[in-house]
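Example record

The entry below shows one chain as it appears in the dataset: sequence first, then structure tokens.
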Amino acid sequence: MLTGGETPRRAYELAAELEPDWSKVALWWGDERCVPPGDENSNFRLAKEALLDGLEVAPAAVHRIRGEFEPEQAAREYERELGETVFDLVLNGIGPDGHTASLFPNAPTLEERERLVVAAQPGLEPFVQRVTLTIPALQRCRAMIFLATGEEKADAVKRAFGDPPSPATPASLVRSAKGTTTAVLDQAAATQLPR
């Protein structure tokens, strides 16, 4: 499962260089902004430009959230497509406010335990509606990796990995239920973690 934002761009480029044949891979997204797939704010567009366009052999399946649809419709359709899928790897980012996917601090979406995909209100710019996987869906993975870089993420990283779990820091609530959870951080993002 892929994440959006600018942090994973280089990781996607490297992944395409290191393994150009993705014929045995099915791709999913953890969230999407409600914009067309070619929009500059689309998580799909980021992955297409940085990863998919660099592959020699395309993935076996690309399960895109239909950001161009009405949010509730896009959420229902993606949830139906998702079914009982268990992910081998979930890649998550962390926003400066502690959000991950489109699960924002203290939002009602953090309480959802029945649905796997829901519409979400914008928490950060761009202020557009979003579609996001819920905590129960994100947890269904064998490995989860959080990727964070930069000093502006240091406080959120500390709250996500150094403090007790809290709805004020959604990334602190999301962990693999079937395997491992790992944080990959640069030195600047890790500065506030206990040594």
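Notes for this example: Helices lie at 9-18, 43-50, 71-82, 135-139, 154-161. The longest strand covers residues 143-148.
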